[in-house]
Amino acid sequence: VLYFQNGQQFQFETETEGGTETEGKRNRKIELISPLAQHPRFGTIDRSGSSDVSLTMGSLEQRQAAGTQSHQIRHARGPRITGKLNIYNYITKVLESPKTLAFRDCFVHWREHKQMGRAGKIFIIDSFCPKDRHAIFFDDNIRYDDARIVDVCDIRSPSHSVPLPRAIDKFLVRVEPLESITDDDYFIKKIHMCEEKLNHSILTRNRMRDALLRLVQAK
């Protein structure tokens, strides 16, 4: 959820018919470092060639080559969270109120693993029964036969990637850049599409479950 507020960082000016809007009008800013925030709103992902993953808040530093470790990150102003499930719980807790979070993914790890999806940007979801929020990952590098850029995993089995057919157009969306530029409602339409397909998937699964229960009870 994007959270626009008055701040000192990440200023985005809005164009109008008369030119760029001024400070006194609709000058939008996104603040990722807030004196009122308990922790910084940005962080860096590190995988360090191991099976575990860490998120260090308050830093954008990363290892530059194989062999360097995440403990070499200096001057971090926030906590370090280890493990996909712990990262999911941390982000869920932080996003109880609307705000913007910015994460730097571990490009070195992705490059070391031949740019495969399971080594890509970490995206942790509840793919079976999302209750409070529906997480959606937009990227123009997602393929319909290969997630490629993103490692989407479920909280029930975070060490394994979610099968692409269960994620595509429900949690993962391939973005067409030209269409998104020419259509102001492009992302709204994509969100509606994901909601409809996810609801249909949950409804179908529930019907199958109920049918199996009736069969078991009949025996």
Task: Identify the notable features of this structure and list them briefly.
219 residues; 4-stranded mixed sheet; two-stranded antiparallel ribbon; 27% helix; disordered N terminus
The helix-and-strand class reads alpha/beta
Low-pLDDT runs of 5+ residues are 1-28
Q: Secondary-structure element sequence?
A: EEEEEEEHEHEEEHEHH
Gross geometry: globular
- Portion in beta strands: 15-25%
Mean pLDDT: 78
Largest sheet: number of strands, sense, barrel closure: 4 strands, mixed
Q: What value does the Rg take, in angstroms?
A: 20 Å
In DSSP terms (H or I, runs of 4 or more residues), the helix count works out at 5
Helix proportion of residues, in percent? 25-40%
Q: What is the spatial order of strands in the main beta sheet?
A: 7-6-5-8
Distance between the termini: 49 Å
**Topology, number of strands:** 12
